[in-house]
Design brief:
The chain is mainly β and about 290 residues long. It has three domains: about 1-95, Sandwich (Immunoglobulin-like), CATH 2.60.40.10; about 105-195, Carboxypeptidase-like, regulatory domain (Immunoglobulin-like), CATH 2.60.40.1120; about 200-294, Immunoglobulin-like, CATH 2.60.40. Helix content is about 5%, strand content about 45%. The protein contains three helices and 23 strands. The strands form six sheets. Strands 4-1-8-6 form a four-stranded mixed sheet, with no helix packed on it. Strands 3-2-5-7 form a four-stranded antiparallel sheet, with no helix packed on it. Strand 13 (about 165-170) and strand 14 (about 175-180) form a beta hairpin.
Length: about 290
């Protein structure tokens, strides 16, 4: 049976303040199946309906917020009981980093850390960035290779041109990677190396529109690294399994489904990767809406 589960995310500081805008994913205990996803509200909370049991069903919880350091994964055990001895309420913490923005409007400040395979900070490591693809504006300003050296804590800061594709080389510490600098004043280096794509969940899993009337279905988006520079339309495609029954178009907030004739069909939302953004890992994310037209 599905029961209410609340996850509260707080900052890892003396005030333990709530942190809003944190993407929260709930997976099976082995991390292979995604069960739910959401974003924390102003109180740092996100509510899920998850299957529980008398002995507890184990889930893996992962957090993400641009510019924050998270401890992943968390493990929770969800109980099923009319009045559980312990409510299904769980806490998690994140360290929110201070943004140190570049002052030049053409530049993006990149901050990061270099660590060894054992997790120790690497001091004096050379971090090099060689431009591969240059935008018109950056080309006019003459984007060239840039480099810096990590401090005693393994930290580095460097300003790079927005819109430019660089080859990042951390020497023997890490492999060379291609990164794309977003149109923003600051970003964390790990967000460039391992960008997480957006998840999108339709608010309604099934709808019953009437013929000739458009029904709006809102789509909740779970954050990506570049969520402040992209739109829902650029991340998703929507298709109908039978346009003779219902047609679908993307909107700014979700999808519009218009009934065409009596019958049943399926609307499929599938994630696409915006042009110019290289994404690591699995990019598959398919959601469906069942449509029944009277």
């Amino acid at each position: 049976m599905a029961v209410a589960v609340t996850i509260t995310v707080k900052g890892n500081d003396a005030l333990t303040t709530a942190v809003s805008g944190v993407g929260v994913w709930v997976f099976s205990s082995d991390g292979s199946v995604e069960h739910a996803a959401g974003v924390t509200d102003a109180a740092g909370e996100v509510l899920f309906m998850l299957t529980g049991s008398a002995d507890g069903v184990t889930y893996q919880v992962r957090l993400y917020k641009t510019g924050a350091i998270t401890t992943n994964p968390y493990t929770i055990s969800v109980l099923e009981s009319a009045v559980p001895a312990t409510p299904n309420e769980f806490d998690a913490t994140v360290d929110v980093m201070d943004e140190s923005a570049a002052t030049d409007p053409y530049m993006c400040r990149v901050t990061g850390y270099i660590k060894s395979s054992s997790g120790r900070p690497v001091a004096g490591a050379n971090v090099n960035f060689d431009p591969l693809h240059i935008t018109v504006a950056a080309n006019e300003l003459g984007a060239t290779s840039a480099s810096t050296v990590t401090d005693t804590d393994g930290a580095f800061t460097i300003d790079l041109y927005r819109g430019v594709t660089y080859m990042a080389d951390c020497g023997s510490v890490d492999a060379m990677e291609t990164i794309v600098i977003p149109d923003r004043a600051w970003i964390r280096f790990t967000d460039l190396m391992y960008p997480r794509v957006m998840s999108a969940i339709p608010v309604d899993a099934s709808i019953s529109p009437t013929v000739g009337v458009a029904t709006a279905v809102a789509v909740t988006t779970v954050l990506s690294d570049f969520s402040d520079t992209i739109t829902l339309v650029s991340w998703l495609t929507a298709t109908s399994s039978d346009e003779a029954v219902a047609a679908v178009v993307m909107s700014a907030d979700g999808v519009l489904v218009t009934g065409a004739a009596s019958g049943t069909c399926t609307i499929t939302l599938e994630r696409i990767i915006p042009s110019g953004l290289e994404v690591k890992g699995d990019t598959t994310d398919i959601r469906t809406i069942t449509v029944t037209v009277a």
